[in-house]
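Human:
If only I could read C-alpha coordinates as easily as an amino acid sequence. I am handing you a single protein, as its sequence and its fold in C-alpha coordinate form. I hope you can help me see how the letters and the C-alpha coordinates relate. Thank you; the sequence and its C-alpha coordinates follow:
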Amino acid sequence: MEYAEMLKIYGCAPGKDDVAAIVAKAQSMVGNNVSPDVLKRCYSCIDLTSLEASDSQKSIAELARKVAAQRGEFTDVPDVASVCVYPSFVETVGVELGDSDICIASVVGGFPSSQTFLEVKMLEAAMAVENGADEIDIVMNVGEVLTGEFDKAGSELELIREEVGDDIVMKVIIESGMLPDYGTMRMAALTAMLAGADFVKTSTGKVSVAATPETAAVICGAISDYFKATGKKVGFKAAGGIRTANDVALYYSIVETVLGAEWLNPELFRIGASSAANNLLSAIMGASVKYY
Protein backbone atom coordinates (compact mmCIF):
# COMPACT_ATOMS: atom_id res chain seq x y z
CA MET A 1 0.00 0.00 0.00
CA GLU A 2 1.21 3.53 -0.76
CA TYR A 3 0.70 4.98 2.69
CA ALA A 4 2.07 8.43 1.90
CA GLU A 5 -0.57 8.88 -0.80
CA MET A 6 -3.36 7.52 1.38
CA LEU A 7 -2.47 9.98 4.15
CA LYS A 8 -3.20 12.94 1.88
CA ILE A 9 -6.95 12.34 1.99
CA TYR A 10 -7.09 12.86 5.76
CA GLY A 11 -6.06 16.50 5.86
CA CYS A 12 -4.06 18.38 8.44
CA ALA A 13 -3.61 17.93 12.17
CA PRO A 14 -5.58 20.12 14.59
CA GLY A 15 -3.96 23.34 15.72
CA LYS A 16 -2.66 23.96 19.23
CA ASP A 17 -5.72 25.98 20.19
CA ASP A 18 -8.07 23.22 19.06
CA VAL A 19 -6.13 20.60 21.02
CA ALA A 20 -6.00 22.85 24.09
CA ALA A 21 -9.78 23.31 23.92
CA ILE A 22 -10.34 19.54 23.86
CA VAL A 23 -8.02 19.02 26.82
CA ALA A 24 -9.65 21.86 28.77
CA LYS A 25 -13.11 20.41 28.19
CA ALA A 26 -11.92 16.97 29.29
CA GLN A 27 -10.28 18.41 32.41
CA SER A 28 -13.59 20.02 33.34
CA MET A 29 -15.20 16.55 33.22
CA VAL A 30 -12.70 14.82 35.50
CA GLY A 31 -14.57 15.69 38.69
CA ASN A 32 -17.63 13.76 37.50
CA ASN A 33 -15.53 10.92 36.08
CA VAL A 34 -13.77 9.96 39.29
CA SER A 35 -16.96 8.35 40.55
CA PRO A 36 -16.74 4.68 41.60
CA ASP A 37 -18.86 3.53 38.64
CA VAL A 38 -16.67 5.27 36.05
CA LEU A 39 -13.47 4.17 37.75
CA LYS A 40 -14.67 0.55 37.70
CA ARG A 41 -15.22 0.89 33.98
CA CYS A 42 -11.72 2.33 33.65
CA TYR A 43 -10.35 -0.53 35.71
CA SER A 44 -11.86 -3.02 33.26
CA CYS A 45 -9.87 -1.26 30.52
CA ILE A 46 -6.46 -1.73 32.18
CA ASP A 47 -3.64 -3.64 30.51
CA LEU A 48 -1.87 -4.59 33.74
CA THR A 49 1.75 -4.32 32.69
CA SER A 50 5.12 -5.60 33.85
CA LEU A 51 7.97 -4.80 31.47
CA GLU A 52 11.06 -4.62 33.64
CA ALA A 53 14.55 -6.04 33.19
CA SER A 54 14.08 -7.60 36.62
CA ASP A 55 11.01 -9.62 35.58
CA SER A 56 11.33 -13.36 36.15
CA GLN A 57 9.18 -16.44 35.74
CA LYS A 58 8.53 -16.26 39.49
CA SER A 59 7.54 -12.59 39.60
CA ILE A 60 5.31 -12.80 36.53
CA ALA A 61 3.63 -15.97 37.79
CA GLU A 62 2.90 -14.21 41.09
CA LEU A 63 1.45 -11.21 39.26
CA ALA A 64 -0.76 -13.41 37.09
CA ARG A 65 -1.96 -15.37 40.15
CA LYS A 66 -3.02 -12.11 41.80
CA VAL A 67 -4.88 -11.09 38.65
CA ALA A 68 -6.68 -14.44 38.57
CA ALA A 69 -7.60 -14.15 42.26
CA GLN A 70 -8.62 -10.50 42.23
CA ARG A 71 -12.37 -11.12 41.90
CA GLY A 72 -12.26 -13.12 45.12
CA GLU A 73 -10.57 -10.24 46.93
CA PHE A 74 -12.64 -7.38 45.45
CA THR A 75 -15.99 -8.86 44.52
CA ASP A 76 -17.46 -5.61 43.19
CA VAL A 77 -14.52 -4.71 40.94
CA PRO A 78 -14.23 -6.08 37.38
CA ASP A 79 -11.19 -7.91 36.06
CA VAL A 80 -8.54 -6.02 34.16
CA ALA A 81 -8.64 -6.33 30.37
CA SER A 82 -5.26 -8.02 30.00
CA VAL A 83 -1.89 -8.82 31.49
CA CYS A 84 0.90 -7.37 29.32
CA VAL A 85 4.37 -8.92 29.51
CA TYR A 86 7.49 -9.69 27.50
CA PRO A 87 7.01 -12.57 25.04
CA SER A 88 9.06 -15.06 27.04
CA PHE A 89 6.48 -14.81 29.86
CA VAL A 90 3.33 -15.33 27.78
CA GLU A 91 3.09 -19.02 28.54
CA THR A 92 3.65 -18.38 32.26
CA VAL A 93 0.73 -15.96 32.35
CA GLY A 94 -1.44 -18.41 30.44
CA VAL A 95 -0.80 -21.18 32.96
CA GLU A 96 -1.79 -18.95 35.89
CA LEU A 97 -4.86 -17.41 34.24
CA GLY A 98 -6.18 -20.78 33.11
CA ASP A 99 -9.58 -20.49 31.41
CA SER A 100 -10.04 -16.87 32.49
CA ASP A 101 -11.48 -14.36 30.01
CA ILE A 102 -8.59 -12.00 30.81
CA CYS A 103 -6.47 -11.50 27.70
CA ILE A 104 -2.74 -12.13 27.47
CA ALA A 105 -0.87 -9.28 25.78
CA SER A 106 2.75 -9.37 24.70
CA VAL A 107 5.09 -6.66 23.53
CA VAL A 108 6.87 -7.84 20.40
CA GLY A 109 9.05 -6.64 17.55
CA GLY A 110 12.20 -5.61 19.37
CA PHE A 111 10.34 -3.64 22.04
CA PRO A 112 10.89 -0.85 23.01
CA SER A 113 13.19 0.47 20.23
CA SER A 114 11.87 -1.64 17.34
CA GLN A 115 15.41 -1.55 15.92
CA THR A 116 15.90 -5.09 14.72
CA PHE A 117 15.40 -7.12 11.56
CA LEU A 118 11.87 -7.35 10.16
CA GLU A 119 12.24 -11.13 10.09
CA VAL A 120 13.02 -11.09 13.83
CA LYS A 121 9.99 -8.92 14.53
CA MET A 122 7.72 -11.24 12.58
CA LEU A 123 9.14 -14.34 14.26
CA GLU A 124 8.83 -12.83 17.74
CA ALA A 125 5.22 -11.86 17.07
CA ALA A 126 4.41 -15.33 15.71
CA MET A 127 6.08 -17.05 18.69
CA ALA A 128 4.20 -14.90 21.19
CA VAL A 129 0.92 -15.86 19.54
CA GLU A 130 1.92 -19.52 19.37
CA ASN A 131 2.63 -19.43 23.11
CA GLY A 132 -0.82 -18.03 23.85
CA ALA A 133 -0.85 -14.26 23.32
CA ASP A 134 -4.25 -12.86 22.41
CA GLU A 135 -2.85 -9.36 21.76
CA ILE A 136 0.44 -7.89 20.62
CA ASP A 137 1.82 -4.41 21.31
CA ILE A 138 4.39 -3.36 18.72
CA VAL A 139 6.34 -0.13 18.20
CA MET A 140 6.15 1.56 14.83
CA ASN A 141 9.63 2.29 13.47
CA VAL A 142 10.18 5.76 14.91
CA GLY A 143 13.24 6.46 12.78
CA GLU A 144 11.24 5.91 9.60
CA VAL A 145 8.44 8.14 10.88
CA LEU A 146 10.88 10.93 11.69
CA THR A 147 12.34 10.77 8.16
CA GLY A 148 8.90 10.70 6.56
CA GLU A 149 9.20 7.12 5.31
CA PHE A 150 5.60 6.21 6.02
CA ASP A 151 5.47 3.65 3.21
CA LYS A 152 8.25 1.65 4.87
CA ALA A 153 6.84 2.04 8.39
CA GLY A 154 3.35 1.05 7.28
CA SER A 155 4.45 -1.86 5.10
CA GLU A 156 6.37 -3.38 8.02
CA LEU A 157 3.29 -3.22 10.25
CA GLU A 158 1.17 -4.67 7.48
CA LEU A 159 3.46 -7.70 7.20
CA ILE A 160 3.32 -8.27 10.96
CA ARG A 161 -0.47 -7.96 10.81
CA GLU A 162 -0.53 -10.69 8.16
CA GLU A 163 1.89 -12.83 10.18
CA VAL A 164 -0.28 -12.96 13.32
CA GLY A 165 -3.66 -13.02 11.58
CA ASP A 166 -6.80 -11.00 12.00
CA ASP A 167 -7.94 -12.75 15.19
CA ILE A 168 -5.07 -11.26 17.20
CA VAL A 169 -5.51 -7.73 18.56
CA MET A 170 -2.64 -5.57 17.31
CA LYS A 171 -1.84 -2.39 19.24
CA VAL A 172 0.63 -0.11 17.48
CA ILE A 173 2.75 2.23 19.61
CA ILE A 174 3.70 5.46 17.85
CA GLU A 175 6.04 6.60 20.68
CA SER A 176 4.44 10.03 20.60
CA GLY A 177 6.96 11.58 22.99
CA MET A 178 9.65 11.26 20.32
CA LEU A 179 7.57 12.85 17.56
CA PRO A 180 8.12 16.58 16.97
CA ASP A 181 4.62 17.89 16.27
CA TYR A 182 0.93 17.08 16.05
CA GLY A 183 1.13 16.57 12.30
CA THR A 184 3.70 13.79 12.62
CA MET A 185 1.71 12.16 15.43
CA ARG A 186 -1.43 12.24 13.32
CA MET A 187 0.29 10.73 10.27
CA ALA A 188 1.86 8.01 12.41
CA ALA A 189 -1.52 7.14 13.93
CA LEU A 190 -3.24 7.07 10.54
CA THR A 191 -0.47 4.93 9.05
CA ALA A 192 -0.88 2.44 11.88
CA MET A 193 -4.62 2.23 11.24
CA LEU A 194 -4.19 1.87 7.49
CA ALA A 195 -1.75 -0.99 8.17
CA GLY A 196 -4.33 -2.88 10.24
CA ALA A 197 -3.91 -1.68 13.82
CA ASP A 198 -6.77 -2.47 16.18
CA PHE A 199 -5.49 0.12 18.66
CA VAL A 200 -3.20 3.13 18.43
CA LYS A 201 -1.10 3.42 21.58
CA THR A 202 0.76 6.51 22.72
CA SER A 203 3.98 5.23 24.23
CA THR A 204 6.21 2.45 25.46
CA GLY A 205 6.75 4.14 28.81
CA LYS A 206 10.49 3.71 28.20
CA VAL A 207 11.30 7.24 27.00
CA SER A 208 11.29 10.48 28.98
CA VAL A 209 8.05 11.83 27.50
CA ALA A 210 5.21 9.32 27.56
CA ALA A 211 1.45 9.84 27.24
CA THR A 212 0.16 13.41 27.43
CA PRO A 213 -3.42 14.68 27.25
CA GLU A 214 -2.54 16.66 24.11
CA THR A 215 -1.18 13.58 22.36
CA ALA A 216 -4.31 11.66 23.33
CA ALA A 217 -6.50 14.37 21.79
CA VAL A 218 -4.54 14.24 18.52
CA ILE A 219 -4.62 10.44 18.28
CA CYS A 220 -8.31 10.27 19.14
CA GLY A 221 -8.99 12.90 16.48
CA ALA A 222 -7.18 10.74 13.91
CA ILE A 223 -9.19 7.71 15.04
CA SER A 224 -12.41 9.70 14.63
CA ASP A 225 -11.46 10.82 11.11
CA TYR A 226 -10.47 7.28 10.14
CA PHE A 227 -13.83 5.99 11.38
CA LYS A 228 -15.68 8.63 9.36
CA ALA A 229 -13.74 7.67 6.23
CA THR A 230 -13.85 3.88 6.58
CA GLY A 231 -16.53 2.93 9.10
CA LYS A 232 -13.93 0.98 11.06
CA LYS A 233 -13.60 1.59 14.79
CA VAL A 234 -10.01 1.57 16.06
CA GLY A 235 -9.23 1.69 19.76
CA PHE A 236 -7.04 4.08 21.73
CA LYS A 237 -4.53 3.10 24.39
CA ALA A 238 -2.81 5.55 26.71
CA ALA A 239 0.38 4.31 28.35
CA GLY A 240 3.33 5.72 30.21
CA GLY A 241 3.22 7.95 33.28
CA ILE A 242 -0.42 7.26 34.14
CA ARG A 243 -0.53 6.79 37.89
CA THR A 244 -3.48 8.36 39.67
CA ALA A 245 -7.24 7.97 39.45
CA ASN A 246 -7.39 11.56 38.17
CA ASP A 247 -4.87 10.70 35.42
CA VAL A 248 -7.03 7.80 34.31
CA ALA A 249 -10.22 9.88 34.48
CA LEU A 250 -8.63 12.55 32.30
CA TYR A 251 -7.83 10.11 29.49
CA TYR A 252 -11.29 8.60 29.83
CA SER A 253 -12.72 12.12 29.50
CA ILE A 254 -10.65 12.84 26.38
CA VAL A 255 -11.95 9.67 24.71
CA GLU A 256 -15.48 10.60 25.75
CA THR A 257 -15.07 14.11 24.34
CA VAL A 258 -13.51 13.20 20.99
CA LEU A 259 -14.88 9.72 20.23
CA GLY A 260 -17.99 9.40 22.38
CA ALA A 261 -19.41 6.94 24.88
CA GLU A 262 -19.34 4.01 22.44
CA TRP A 263 -15.53 3.96 22.71
CA LEU A 264 -15.54 3.67 26.51
CA ASN A 265 -15.14 -0.08 26.84
CA PRO A 266 -12.21 -2.54 26.81
CA GLU A 267 -12.75 -3.33 23.13
CA LEU A 268 -11.86 0.26 22.18
CA PHE A 269 -10.15 1.91 25.17
CA ARG A 270 -7.16 0.66 27.13
CA ILE A 271 -4.87 2.07 29.79
CA GLY A 272 -1.35 0.70 30.16
CA ALA A 273 -0.82 0.63 33.90
CA SER A 274 1.16 -0.78 36.76
CA SER A 275 0.98 1.57 39.77
CA ALA A 276 -2.32 3.01 38.52
CA ALA A 277 -4.07 -0.29 39.24
CA ASN A 278 -3.56 0.01 43.00
CA ASN A 279 -4.50 3.69 42.92
CA LEU A 280 -7.71 2.94 41.04
CA LEU A 281 -8.56 0.17 43.47
CA SER A 282 -7.95 2.59 46.35
CA ALA A 283 -10.22 5.22 44.81
CA ILE A 284 -12.95 2.67 44.15
CA MET A 285 -12.76 1.12 47.61
CA GLY A 286 -12.30 4.42 49.45
CA ALA A 287 -9.25 3.14 51.32
CA SER A 288 -5.59 2.56 50.57
CA VAL A 289 -5.09 -0.66 48.58
CA LYS A 290 -1.73 -2.24 47.71
CA TYR A 291 -2.83 -5.44 46.04
CA TYR A 292 -0.35 -5.46 43.16
Observations:
- Residues 3-285 form a domain with the TIM Barrel fold (CATH 3.20.20.70).
- Residues 172 and 200 are 5 Å apart (CA to CA).
- The two ends are 44 Å apart (CA to CA).
- The chain has a mean pLDDT of 97.
